């Protein structure tokens, strides 16, 4: 299933919020650069409700690591090694990477 298919399913899920309740999914979150510095982790297993979006993942992560708020507006997300947005529905065993802007010199 590609990102476009997942976005379509997200729109359908928004129309029927009752469908978002049910079994949970387990994903792996990867932290890079500043996100790794702010959390002290390189990766984290995360459990969410079935039908959750990448935005739901971010909300849960910020609740656990409030310092991530610092980079929310400037980072990009990758789901299973493909850039994505906050409205994509996650699936069991997905891998979500938080990629802040990289500075160098």
Task: Give the structural class.
Answer: alpha+beta
Order of helices and strands: HEHEHEEE
Low-confidence stretches: 8-20
What is the helical fraction, as a range of percent?
25-40%
Number of helices: 3
Average pLDDT taken over every residue: 85
User: So what's the overall shape?
Assistant: globular
Modified residues (1-thioglycine): 105
Pathway: Cofactor biosynthesis; molybdopterin biosynthesis
Family: Belongs to the MoaD family. MOCS2A subfamily.
Pfam families: ThiS (PF02597)
Account of the protein in words:
This protein is of the alpha+beta class. The protein has helices at about 5-15, 35-40, 55-65; strands at about 25-30, 45-50, 75-80, 80-85, 95-100. Strands 2-1-5-3-4 form a 5-stranded mixed sheet. The radius of gyration is 14 Å and the shape is globular. The model is unreliable at about 10-20 (pLDDT under 50).
Key features?
5-stranded mixed β-sheet, alpha+beta, 26% strand, 105 residues, globular, 5 strands
